[in-house]
Amino acid sequence: MLGAIRTVLVVDDSRLQRRILASSLKKWGFIVVEADSGEAAMEICKADPPDLVLSDWMMPGMSGVEFCEAFRQLKSERYSYFILLTSKSEKNEVAQGLDAGADDFLIKPVNSDELRARISAGDRILGMQRELSAKNSLIATALDDLKVAHDAIDKDLKQAQKIQQSLVPELTRDFGASRISLLLKPCGHIGGDLVGMFSPGLNRVGFYSIDVSGHGITSAMMTARLGSYLSSHYFEQNVAMERRFNRFYALRQPEDVAATLNSRLIADTGIEEYFTMVYGIVDLRSGVLKMVQAGHPHPLVLRQDGTKEFLGEGGVPIGLLPDIPFEQFETTLEVGDRLLLYSDGFTECRLENGEMLEPEGLLDLVDDCEPNQGGPEFLDDLFWRLSQVMSPEYGMEDDVSATFFEYNGP
With the C-alpha atoms ordered 312, 314, 318, 321, is the resulting torsion angle positive or negative? Predict the structure, then answer.
């Protein structure tokens, strides 16, 4: 019969009653401990709690109910089953015993078969309780292990965030009278958006906005790679530049840059990621702007006279198909014109009605921004207004980034 219950404590001030109960219990294979009072039983329980307690209700000194209450206050890792023994005259007080912490009760004189049945029921309950405790212990251990792993990952992600931020060392830079400002807001520790700018010499500027497919670590690793391909410090690594006459660097045409990046990505087997991009170069003397759009949202020109214009025809993302042509287009900027490159974290932002912001909504946000703001202030204002219309239910589901070019001549 031994299962979860192995040790039984019999508490009764009657020596005869203890002997009768102990005899049956030993015959069934239990280890029996006896106590003649509640006080003596408490000392035994403090030293080594039993699996089952059989306690008389009426005893001099500490009653069975008082003993039960005190027993339940003991701190123990294991639960013990408690049966109160009572006479028929105390039957109406059974509820009091259960409230005190007893699990069951038996009417005296105790019937041997009924006692065995009640112990079997208690054994099943204890077995399930201890199995549950063991599983909870395993879960607690697993949760502790997960917390350690999470803390390590969180630490690594914070370091990765610093590394990714180093890809955009400056958020604004003047190029003569003109200026480029950058915005980069990952939806997590790290993200798959990348913005940047570089200049190989006077009056020549290149800038871009990139959005790698997916989110998280894989996308962030790809942005780190692209950051080296379009480095603002190491021109010899920058695929958007070429060395001429061994004397200076020149900006390559945007369509050639897109084709080079596409061939490099396609050549890397095992890489399933692709990215969208707008890359542009501008001659600050003439205001001529040449661009390539590879699946990225349409660049937005904010003219000095107040008109607005989306540029480009879409194009194919980089890294999807080999040997595809990328079409270049151009426009001329006048002094006072501004250009906004942005990721789909803006246009696909979920609103409170469940719909997306879309390009039309972006125009409304731009119109709401304070006029005549400088680049950094304009981007901060634009992102703040986006956060105000963003659905609280969905929040920021995607990375948000932008490149803002203010043309004011050479």
Answer: negative
pLDDT of residue 330: 96
d(CA 332, CA 5): 89
CB 188 within 8 A of CB 215: yes
| Residue 91 within a domain | yes
Residue span of the structural domain in which 363 resides: 167-406
Element (H, E) at 222: helix 216-229
User: pLDDT band at residue 77, thresholds of 50, 70 and 90?
Assistant: confident
Is 341 contained in some domain? Answer: yes
- Kindly state the tokens that stand for 51: 């699996």
| Burial class of residue 381 (count of CB atoms within 10 Å of its CB; 0-12, 13-18, 19+) | middle
Query: Does 288 map to a domain?
Result: yes
For residue 249, pLDDT over 70 is answered with: yes
* Residues 330-347, mean pLDDT to the nearest whole number: 96
CA distance 173 to 198: 10
Q: What is the pLDDT of residues 115-144, one digit of tens each?
A: 999 999 999 999 898 888 889 888 988 998
- Three-state DSSP class for 391? coil
> Whose CA is closest to 293, among 331, 265, 267?
331
Inside any domain, residue 146: no
Q: What is the pTM of this model?
A: 0.68
